[in-house]
Amino acid sequence: MSKARKRKRGRDATPGVKIYVFLLFVAGNESNSTQARGNLARLCEEHIKERHKIETVDVLKDAATAHKNNVLVTPTLILLKPLPKVTVLGNLSDTRQVLAALRLNGDQR
Amino acid sequence: MSDQKPLYGELESKMKEAEALIKVLRTHQVDAIVGERHIMLVRLKQAEENLKSSRNQLRALAANLQSVRENERAMIARELHDEFGQTLTSLQLGLSWISRMLTPRQQPLREKITSLSTLTSTMIRSVRKIARELRPGVLDELGLVKTLKSEAREFEGHTGIQCRFRTNTARAKFERLAAVAIFRIVQEALTNVARHAHASGAKIALMKRKNWLILTVNDNGKKSTKKLTYSHDSLGIVGMRERALALGGTLTINGSRNKGTTLRVRIPLPRVITGRAS
After folding, report:
1. Which of A55, A89, B108, B207 has its CA 20 to 30 A from that of A10?
2. pTM of the full predicted structure?
3. What is the interface size between A and B, counted as CB pairs within 8 Å?
4. pLDDT tens column, B8-58
5. What is the ipTM of this complex?
6. How far does B140 lie from chain A, in Å, by closest CA?
7. Phi-psi region of A82 (alpha: psi -120 to 50; beta: other; left: phi over 0)
């Protein structure tokens, strides 16, 4: 790893703080996909403010990434980090269950 | 055993994934199914709403058709009774007048006229019967309960199947369309008893229970099969069910080997009873 890259990583990551990295698969602006986008943004804002990174993949434009990640239906949310990886299906409207699945219940740091 | 642990873990996670997949499909939270070659957009909610809307439209159409049919039946019954009935009565009076005018020497003619008079009487009875079947006058004049009583008596007379009727709504006043619907359901149910049940007895009950009106038609014959009950070809049953649904009610048919078949219609009372008869 180059010195410059090491410095960059050092600036971004605060030691001891978990960064949540999500990959959300949606199908254009279909109703459940729109709901999933909104629900995920709200959950992140409420529970892991400024400690999250969401990458959204529209399967209608990028099917290859969906195949690579074994995504069968949309909306699908994959929590990439922190490990272990978690997959949640649906429009994320059941907040309690989604928080439990993402191991976010009680995590307000 | 230790080699099997990861396999179990893998299976468990696959099971969880499958359960989640079933759940989202059931709760209609799916927008697209991602296949190897195609991405199929699924609009389950929209499809379900469309289906619901067309079902409601069909139901409204069926209710409207029933009402049109009842009005036409009433009109034909009235025409039959008034036009044919009157003409045939006049014909019979004429024949009996001619018969009185005949001399004892015209015996063969008298016999012919008597035979024509008998034929006319039979025709008058037939016309009355057809008119009554098309639209039972007692339903309008005497009300639902007395009509059902008379229907049970007539059924027993025609078929030889003992038929009992009981009710706790004898003094209730039924809404006209509801009365017609209930009467037609009973008629159809009794026809089914006569045709299919091979029964020796039938019971009709029209009971008020809390906020519901419960109609049951029970026989002691063969049990009705599920296939027959839910088949789209059983037009009689479909018709009965549509009539019950039009009144905001439900219709169920249960069969048991020893107790025959029971048809049960449950209708919310406010849709049926408008008050007490004077």
Report:
1. A55
2. 0.55
3. 62
4. 777 887 788 888 888 888 888 888 888 887 888 887 777 778 888 888 888
5. 0.74
6. 54
7. beta
